[in-house]
Design brief:
About 0% of the residues lie in helices and about 40% in strands. By secondary structure, it is an all-beta fold. A 4-stranded antiparallel sheet has the order 2-3-4-5, with no helix packed on it. A hairpin with a 3-residue loop joins β18 and β19. The N terminus and C terminus are likely disordered.
Length: about 425
Amino acid sequence: MRDRSRVLRLGGVLAGLAAVLSVPVPGASAAGPRGCAGGALAVAAGDSHSLALMGDGTVRAWGSNSDGQLGDGSRTDSGLPVQVRGLSEVRAVAAGLHHSLALLADGTVRAWGNNSDGQLGDGTATSSTVPVQVTGLTGVRAVTGGNEHSLAVLKDGTVWAWGGNGSGELGNGTDTDSNVPVQAAGITTARGVAAGENHSLAFLRDGTVRAWGLNSSGRLGDGSTLDSDMPVQTTGITTARGVAAAGDFSLALLKNGTVRTWGGNTSGQLGNGTFLTGDVPVQVLDVRRAKDVAAGGRHSLALVKDGAVRAWGRNSSGELGNGTATLSNVPVEAVGIRRAKDVAAGGRHSLALLENGTVRAWGSNSLGRLGNGTAADSAVPVQVAGIPGCRGHGEPVPSPGGRDHDDRRALPGALKHGAAPVR
């Protein structure tokens, strides 16, 4: 799941949970989203669902809907994008395990889906199939979602958290769940956040990273495996400009375009050519000029400057997008992706937003998470239906099959992030 907690931008993943960076989301501004109504501006991925922030400030969702995480008022899975109810003027989106988040232009946050641990932040433990307002938050600049918790960065640099807290992932010095936002201790200069399975990350204005929550496999990166209910400093990182987190591992994008990873590595998700767990950051091999990162259940993505996507880690469902089902502990290139401007990683699937506003997806298609109207997994990117994008000065780009369609409702033509999934 990633930082993916970008300001939308956003961004996940996060990663994936994503995710989650400090730079604005492409195509968005303080004044509002830009682009043609049919094109997407950002993407986010949960464990088995996906989100797209559209150019008109609305949100589309597809995949699993068992807890209402698609936000369309039902609990019916959808293999094609559906519109999230009641949202406009959205500036960022994020996805947790089975819940979703949206940051609005007025600085408030909406959430929907599973709420068993209070991760919707509305003061209840009642899941919702439509967006509800997160209690008491204003002036928000970025959001992200983890397994059963959520995070927000405010414009004043503080971090607020809500939901499950059994491992201290809310960062407030307790292990008590909270269904309303509480302040993470000691952070006043945060630029972005990311949320994993039971841990959280923030990168600060000075380029350092703070981490808190569960620390099995060393996912906090402080050289230990001791859990912490208060933020601790991740070792050796002083130039971070983005973070991402997923199940049991974490990533940081550095200002020089390289990537650092730490935590669990059973599937090679650290990308350093080994399968060894790391409780301090290691460098991902063969990734240069990266401009975004995302973390999935057990895989990672990097968007590089030329618009290609590099992927590493688990690949049993084709989530690396290189045409195989073979895991890789070093980065490989997703087939056919050029001119991408955003990425997101889910539990076993991946997303890329292209410059023309269309979206590509690959990996597991269980419950329709690839959004192409089928149930077939794909080890190479396929186009998400119903998001035709733009060409030139807003000319629609035809969607697969030559028309914009939806199996459950017409898409009236209509941003992002979060943490990636964690399974």
